[in-house]
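subagent[fold] <- orchestrator: predict structure for attached chain, return tokens only, no commentary.
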Amino acid sequence: MKLLDQLNQMERIPAKYALMSDKEKEKRIAEIKAKFGKRLYIPGHHYQRDEVVQFADSTGDSLQLAQLSQDNSDAEYIVFCGVHFMAETADMLTNDNQHVILPDLKAGCSMADMATIEQTERAWVDLQEMFGDTILPLTYVNSTAAIKAFCGRYGGATVTSSNAKKMVEWAFTQKPRLLFLPDQHLGRNTAFDLGISLEEMAVWDPIEHKLETTRPIEEIKVILWKGHCSVHEKFTVEQIRQLRKEEPNTKIIVHPECPHEVVQEADLNGSTHYIIETIKKAEPGTVWAVGTEMNLVNRLAQQYPEQTIKSLNPNMCPCLTMNRIDLDHLTWSLELLEEGTLHHPIRVDKQTTKEARLALERMLNRP
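subagent[fold] -> orchestrator:
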């Protein structure tokens, strides 16, 4: 069943959860976790609310959590506190006897939704006409199972923000050009760091269905899908320059999903793991402005009070879709599981899984 069909059919959360106190919900979650023991595994993404993260058996990035789910063979039930594409990856990596559940199907990802399989297949036909058989598709793991399968089918692979440089270098050993889905900013920042000029990159607009470039197409090496993270695109050069004027001793670290000019202006940039490790190892008394999701920034500030840590964007909101999973939805999912109901199970069909795993394995098998 397609996600849209699932969304249309899903029921509203029962009113009783709005009447329960947080303490009551926390008590129920703890009771059910204890009852299921190792049969239940709750992975929680770094961007989740603290009220949810407190119950996570593991925290991490999306692929890391899917791999931990795969390794946790004792777990019959994986209640994934993240977003839809992450739960899909967990389902594709785990075995048929394990059940992946997403507490709220509306917990999606706007970036992943910016590249549908229909748009991608249509674009591929036109790009093949323009460039011939010279393109290898790469997709950020922040994409749907169908897009991962597309890349697997055409010899491509997945990438993470940690290994994007390595995977782009690999892609150029396979074909002279690459199509980078669905985040144009990670693709642009990665390619630029590898010495590819901005003039050698073009943007594919899936809405207008056209290639955006002023250069001769034979000069294009990287085709960037016109997608972005709605959180990271809110960070600007103006915020950095204002901060440098007011607080010149503040170090600025941002995620490579931020726009190119922001990454270039910042002191440091890197994956969520890189940001966490950099803050963790920083000297006491240092001051940091962090360009990433607000829940993580706030958690870092609490974990490392000997430093001053704040968001680069003082008006930043948490990721709205990630924040759909709250105590209410987690309690609801677990209580239904206790009753024997798999609420919002995530299942990827076998063919999609087979092809998507090819893309994942091409990345994971790189030394």
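orchestrator: received. Logging for downstream: The radius of gyration is 21 Å. The chain has three domains: 3-108+321-348, 112-229, 232-311.
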